[in-house]
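ASSEMBLY PREDICTION REQUEST
Request ID: AP-0331
Submitted by: J.K., bench scientist
Number of chains: two
Total residues: 964
Priority: normal
Notes: Please return the full assembly, not individual chains.
Input sequences:
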Amino acid sequence: MPSIEWKPESASSVTLQKQIEGHIRGKILNGEWPIGTKIPSQRALAKSLGVNRSTVSAALAELAADGLTDGRSGAGTMVVNNTWSILAAAPPPDWRHYVTSGAQEPNLTTIQDINRAEFHPGVIRLGTGELSPDLLPSSAIRDLFRQIPERPLRLGYEEGKGSAFLREQVSNHVKTLGIHASPASILIVSGALQALQLIAIGLLQQNSTILLEKPSYLYSVPVFQSAGMRLIGLSMDADGVQVPFIEKFKRQHNAAMLYTIPTFHNPTGTCMTKERRTEFMDVCTATRLPVVEDDVYRDLWLDAPPPPPLKSTDGKGIVLYLGSMSKTLSPGLRIGWIIGPEPVIERLADIKMQTDYGASSLSQWAVAEFLAGGLYHKHVENVRSELRIRRALMLQALSVSMGDIATWNTPGGGFYVWLRLHRPLSMKKLFDRCLSEGILINPGNIYDRSTDQHLRLSYAHAPANAIAAAIERLSVECRRGP
Amino acid sequence: MPSIEWKPESASSVTLQKQIEGHIRGKILNGEWPIGTKIPSQRALAKSLGVNRSTVSAALAELAADGLTDGRSGAGTMVVNNTWSILAAAPPPDWRHYVTSGAQEPNLTTIQDINRAEFHPGVIRLGTGELSPDLLPSSAIRDLFRQIPERPLRLGYEEGKGSAFLREQVSNHVKTLGIHASPASILIVSGALQALQLIAIGLLQQNSTILLEKPSYLYSVPVFQSAGMRLIGLSMDADGVQVPFIEKFKRQHNAAMLYTIPTFHNPTGTCMTKERRTEFMDVCTATRLPVVEDDVYRDLWLDAPPPPPLKSTDGKGIVLYLGSMSKTLSPGLRIGWIIGPEPVIERLADIKMQTDYGASSLSQWAVAEFLAGGLYHKHVENVRSELRIRRALMLQALSVSMGDIATWNTPGGGFYVWLRLHRPLSMKKLFDRCLSEGILINPGNIYDRSTDQHLRLSYAHAPANAIAAAIERLSVECRRGP
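STATUS: Completed
Returned structure:
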């Protein structure tokens, strides 16, 4: 459905109706709204343009009278023509056909709704896995650029694997976690999601099977499904993914890879214990099952540092390790990394070059300077103490407002509280109701299609002073029944 | 083939041999070089480590004696084991199998060689389609960031289509070219190559056929081929692509789309005339053939502004228009855009979100400020006058050194001279010979598999004072015969 970002001028000598008619006519005639485009409802148009519905209605009637649109089908008003002349030549290409072709699956409808609603002004985002804007280091980055002359700013294409300076810093950074990776075995990517995309199209065959935790963040992004792959979920307990199933499922489904978020799991917040990590690595090594370790939340521990990454005990090179700055420093920088055996990194680097010629050199430079100068650790410490406050506010609000209708975990780090409602609900209805109250939630069925009684809450994004009231509102909406 | 970025310490008390042995042993034991990895040749190792070959040889002999490597197969030395104990459990996953699986084709070998050779220190890049580092506006960008406080720097995720501020600036920018596109019909991408990737996976079916100019830049990137598509080349003349073939080929091959670089074509430098553009649009409109117009060189006109873009005469919405900052402002920023019918842009934005959650917000901000403040036009004017000088130097050098063995065009803009040698040559040999002389060339068969007598030269990247000598060297290598 197209949108209108434009608004009519109320001070103009042209009537509002004529302005609206002219604007939509322009979109149709210049091909922005091709034939087949569904025009937003009169109600929606009136709201977004800030005018009465009768004004919109009159403007649309003019367009229909000119034969440009047709509203008789009952399915709303459609663009049916885009030329004045009956003598016009051929119709334009049928873009609808193209838009529904293509190998890539569209995002889940709920995800698309969330992506859009995130930019509604004033909405409280109670499920967003992202730091609140006031926790992002805008002023520190400004300072960095002021100091540029000391080290030259590169604006050309970077090497295929990413800037050598940044890879060196990442190598030093992961050494503190027990991972010994030379810069040659590190690939800089535009965030961990791109890492998964590269793995999907670069390493796996179309009909591959991927094991993963259930629930998992990975169910919410169609990156593997679009490449024709199947996801098989492994149950979790409080110590992490349940290991006994791995060997069985690997054999049964001929699984090609296992994807895991062992540390502050998304969405459950679970942190795999040290013992479980050992068992896990033993099984995966013995069954020769490659592992993707998504470790983007590690630095956000709140009570105690988590056990070392799986990769730090990976003597056989079975683990591809993903790190990112999106959760800790800034999602907008779009910087992450993959660490793994060098032939694998070479292959993925080649595909990255084919896909987008590498990550922004400006962003790479900023992240490298952040790591090199020790600013990163100072920043993360500050983020941790802010997150501790927000976590406390959310847990307190949940106790006050929802203790009788739900249970939840107390996460030791990361962003997420995985809420389990005592009674199932229509997730779609709850989502819509909350959104109309100005609260954006992430329903649990994004992460596990089979659940209708979970929500992923995040204490990272909502303003601290809005958390209690938002949880109370959520509680009211949950009580309104299925 | 893995690489070694490390160098031994000559001042160390540990012998060079022991240091080298230890370094390689580390790479094998921590899984960076898994079983099956081919170790670089002794000659290559000696060169990259800066030691005698005998030292390397002795170090490798130790590793072989420990059973970690095997050099007896004749195919070079391979990693065959990575554990000390014969009691070791299972071997690691067979990464070689994974690296050769995956849907994405590897880059052409020559392209991979070029990508690597670009980072050889001191190499003169005579084919690179990129501005020389001294033409990039590093200091202007530095100044921009100093002025940040006036407008807040956003570090969060941007909207799916890209930052509203940048899309507004792009909308204003293309208006000066005759394209009326509202911000809602613009998608910000990480460079034009990503635009092609999104189109391939988002709009086209796997077995689609794409028409394009022959030769074309598009032959050098496997973005469509990897998605299982066929490319059918259309002949060109001095006025651009030859129109009469379009309808025939569209019917014959049931083509789904036509990709064109009408303005300062890559690699031939051709600029489609105004008359040809009209004929072209008439045929594509009549046959309902969607067009991708790649217009990234437009602002780099050197003699006179080119005719308006195809998109500016596109009343039916058949054209997807690609623009980019990579050729004019900075490739490292990774910022480009797609303009098209809104439903198409919505679909591509959704896929972009799935792929990498959008372009770097730092880069988006910098480009928007560049456009908004008029800095962009000042910068491009400066680039144009520098390119005029370099173009003159290259054409002069060609006349002096190669007039008797080749012909070429005089480009009216962009970066490229398309050189045609009178006699065919082994492109592979010429490439290798030139590289060993410190000159990196782009053989013509990257852009048209069937030619063995073309080279794409670029006057944009090599230092101005190195062009004449490099062309002279190239001439000598060409004369050494096939």
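REVIEWER COMMENTS: The first strand of chain B starts at residue 69 and ends at 70.
SIGN-OFF: pending second reviewer
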